[in-house]
Amino acid sequence: MSALAVPPERTGFLNTYRRFPLNIVRGQGSRVMDDRGRWYLDAFTGIGVMALGHAHPEITAAIHAQVDALLHVSNLCHVPVQTGLAWRLGHMYGGKVFLCNSGTEAVETAVKLARKATGREEVLCATGGFHGRTYMALACTGRYQKGFGAMPSGVRHVPADDLARSVSENTACVLVEPVQGEGGCVPVALQGLRAACDAVGALLIYDEVQCGLGRTGVLHHDPAPHVRTLAKALGGGLPLGAVISEVDPFEPGDHGSTFGGNPVSCAAACATLEVIERDRLWERCRVLGLRLRSGLEELGLGVSGRGLMLAAHLGEDAGPVLEQLRERGVLTCAAGAQSIRFLPPFTATEDEIDEMVDALRRS
Ligand SMILES: *Cc1c(COP(=O)(O)O)cnc(C)c1O
Question: What b/e string do you get for 50-79 counting C-beta neighbours within 10 Å, with b at 16 or more?
Fold first, then answer.
C-alpha cells in the first residue's frame, strides 16, 4: 500500500468508496495535481463530469459572476439563469425541462413522469444498465441491491436486444442508456425502440447521464426518445441533473427539489452548453475517439464504446493495470473487473490521447 493510502477506518467516511491513494488538490485543462505537486493526465474526468477539462475559463467566469449575483432563492420564483438553461436545453433537444441535482434524481423524475403520463407501472430496463443508487434508480440498475431490502415493484430487466419485442400495453416506459457506461461502454441497438413504444403508448427514456452532450460523437442518439436524462457533464463540475420531455403530465406540487436547478450550477451549465454547441465538440469527440480506439486496438486490446467513451478489455484483472497507469501519470477507472474505461475531456489534444495509449502500452 502506498504511504498515502489511508485505511478506511481512519478517514471518517462510511466505507462506500475504494479510493485511489492520492490527494488531488488542483486541476487545469486535462490534468490534475496531487498534494506533492505531481500532475496526472485525467483520462476519466471524474466519470465523465469534467467534459471541458478542469478550470475551463468560460465556466469558471460564469460561476464567479453567478456567485456574486445570487446563490439561491427558490423554485417558487423565476430565476433568469434557470430559465435560460431550460430554454437552451429545450432548444437543443426539444421538450420541457425539469432541473434536479444528480443523475439518480433525473432517473427518479423520468420514471415518475412516465408512470403518471401513462397510468401504467412497468419500467422495462436493459440488463447491464446503470441508472443510479436511490431506490427506484437502483431497482432499474438491477445490481448493487444486496442487503438493501425490497426494491420498488414494476421494474423488469431484459437483454437490450429484446427491449423492443418486450414492450406491451402494460409498459409505462423503456429506460435505456444509448451507450451503457458502468456496464463497460456497451452501445445498445436503439433501432425500432421508439416505434415499439409509440405502438402501445409507452414512453422511451434515454438515460444520457454519462453518454450525453456529445461524448459518444453525436449530440442526438437516433431514434429520438420521448424523454431524456442528463447530469454528470451538464453542470460543468457542479451538481446538476435534467430531464427533458416531450410530454408533461405534472401539476404543481407533484414533484420538486429544493436545490434543483441551483443558479450557480445553471450558470456553469449554460457556459458548458455554449462551448459544446459553439465549438461543435461532439465532432471533436468523434475524431479523438477514433484516434484513441485505434491506439488501443494497436495494443491488441478489444475495445468497445463510441466516441470518447471507450473501454479497453484486458482479459485480466484491471486493478494492477490501473495502478501502473497511475504511477505513469494517467488517472482512470475500471469498467467491470477486467476493463479500463477512458472518458477523456472533449478538449483533450491529440498528444494527450497518445499519452494515454503510451502509458497503457508500458503498463
Ligand atoms: C452516473 C450515472 C447515473 C447516476 O448519476 P448520479 O449523479 O451519480 O446520481 C445514472 N445514470 C447513468 C447512465 C450514470 O452513468
Answer: bbbbbebebbeebbeebeeeeeeeebeeeb
The radius of gyration computed from the CA coordinates of the chain, to the nearest angstrom, equals: 20
Residue of 104, 140, 144 to mutate, ligand 1, most atoms within 8 A of C-beta = 104
Asked whether 89 and 244 are in contact (CB, 8 A), the reply is yes
| C-beta of residue 234 within 8 angstroms of C-beta of residue 241 | yes
The verdict on the CB of residue 102 being under 6 Å from ligand 1 is: yes
Pocket test for ligand 1, best of 99, 101, 130 (most atoms within 8 A of CB): 130
Please write the tens of the pLDDT for every residue from 114-125: 999 999 999 999
Nearest residue to 178 (alpha-carbon basis) of 162, 197, 160:
160
Residue 171 has pLDDT above 80, yes or no: yes
Contact 100, 109 (CB under 8 A): yes
For residue 323, how many other CB atoms are within 10 A of its CB?
14
Q: Residue 204: left if φ>0, alpha if ψ -120 to 50, beta else—which one?
A: beta
For the entire predicted model, the pTM comes to 0.96
Cβ(249)–Cβ(117) under 8 Å?
yes
State if residue 132 touches ligand 1 by the CB under 6 angstroms criterion: yes
Tell which residue, 210, 203, 182, 120, has the closest CA to residue 333.
182
> Chain centroid to CA 139: how far?
18
Binding site membership of 103 for ligand 1 (Cβ less than 6 Å): yes
Tens digit of pLDDT for each residue in 78-102?
999 999 999 999 999 999 999 999 9
- Judge whether 67 and 267 are in contact, CB under 8 Å: no
> Tens of pLDDT along 177-203?
999 999 999 999 999 999 999 999 999
53 conformational bin, left if phi > 0, alpha if psi -120 to 50, beta if neither: left
